[in-house]
Amino acid sequence: MARTSRPNRVRLANQILETIRGGRFEVGHHLREQQMGDLLQVSRTPVRAALALLAEHGVVEARRNQGFFLKATPEELHRLSLEVPLTADQDLYSDIVNDRLADRLPVSFTQAEIARRYDVDRMLLQRTLSRLVDDGLLERNPGRGWTFLPTLDTGLALQNSYDFRRTLEPNGLLLPTFRLDAGALERLRIQHHYLESHPRIASVDARQLFDTDAHFHETIAGFSGNIFLLQAIQQQNRLRRLLEFGGYVNRRRVRDWCREHLAILDALAASDNARAAELMLAHLGNAYRAVPAFTGTAAGSVAP
């Protein structure tokens, strides 16, 4: 059985911490692995590993043949956050993306060229290139080499993207086919509370921030019941991933969009879709206004 990597275990432990805070669990609360796994959409094995990590930090107590029980007080929980360690893969991934944003990497390159540039071993490079392909940033050329996929690399393209989303996303909330998934909404709420209340938001991996934002918009689009709307939002997320990967240096804006997302979720939970649509429209407008003057591929902070 594959072991849970330490970065993933730490991320999951932080999500469990946020669940505990959000649920206002009391000392002695039984943290059931299956229940936590169902809530966070992971299996029991990584949940058990994350709870074991929290036990090492004195947050929970592991009782033989009984499971895990909350040990920390609310005051102790409020002060605690576990740092996610960077891996060599994450370092190389960030280096490649940031070099492309700064025009230090061409649109197309060979594996030999990039191996010489970063002086890394073959296995690490292949893993990282595969992750870039999985994230929709790269594609393998028919012959040899790799090519970065098209992105929102001009100011006009970026404006058109936001105009398109402002036309589409708020109206998706008003479709008669819209159906809310309460479980998915609660998972979104937990993810956003975790980021909004994070004591060291600057330490959070930019990929996690982008993925949280993209998942929010795709989940809401999925509630619309319209497959074409969902596919359109997924395509917009693919186009903006490269440009916006480097756009989370403004962590104050991250907290702002988390709060804006949470307000939309609150309106949906109250069955006030008209209000949610108004908030979505305002949110996308705020996001676009937060974009600094576009200077090309190496543009600065782009808000989600």
Assign the structural class, choosing from mainly alpha, mainly beta, alpha/beta, alpha+beta, or little secondary structure.
Answer: mainly alpha
Main beta-sheet annotation: 3 strands, antiparallel
Helix content class: 55-70%
User: Which residue ranges are poorly predicted, with pLDDT under 50 across at least 5 consecutive positions?
Assistant: 1-5, 294-303
Number of helices: 13
> For the residues shown, what is the average pLDDT?
81
Q: What is Rg?
A: 21 Å
How far apart lie the N and C ends? 37 Å
Order of helices and strands: HEHHEEHHEHHEEHHHHHH
- Number of E-type strands: 6
Proportion of strand residues: 5-15%
- Sequence of strands across the biggest β-sheet: 1-3-2
* Overall form: globular
Give a quick rundown of the structure.
With 304 residues, the protein is mainly α.
What does this structure look like?
The strands form two sheets. Strands 1-3-2 form a three-stranded antiparallel β-sheet. It has a three-stranded antiparallel β-sheet with strand order 4-6-5. It is mainly alpha-helical and 304 residues long. The radius of gyration is 21 Å and the shape is globular. α8 packs antiparallel against α13. The protein has helices at residues 6-23, 33-40, 44-56, 74-79, 88-101, 111-118, 122-134, 155-172, 182-196, 206-223, 227-245, 251-269, 273-289; strands spanning 30-31, 60-63, 67-70, 108-109, 138-140, 146-148. Residues 1-5 and 294-303 have low confidence and may be disordered. A hairpin with a 3-residue loop joins β2 and β3 (67-70). The protein has 13 helices and six strands. It is 61% helix and 6% strand.
